[in-house]
Specification:
The chain is mainly α. The chain is 63% helix and 0% strand. It starts with a helix and ends with a helix.
């Protein structure tokens, strides 16, 4: 029975913290676009991925840089 005297205020505190986090998330707009992520996965973005995965060309040294400077 003594445990319940510490659990009730503790759980009340955690409940208030979770409600405050929920209110903060709603005010920041976390729940505004519920369908955006669901439809974004259906978009075809393979071309963008192919452009980023191509190997980059190495820069070729010019003739001027090969000669030692005096």
């Amino acid at each position: 029975m003594n445990v319940i005297y510490s659990l009730i205020p503790g759980m009340t505190f955690f409940g208030l913290v979770f409600v405050a986090i929920l209110i903060w998330a709603v005010k920041k707009g976390q729940y505004e676009d519920m369908e955006g992520n669901a439809s974004r996965i259906l978009l075809d973005d393979d071309e963008d991925a192919m452009l980023h995965s191509q190997p980059k060309k190495k820069a070729q040294p010019s003739d001027d840089s090969a000669a030692p400077k005096q």
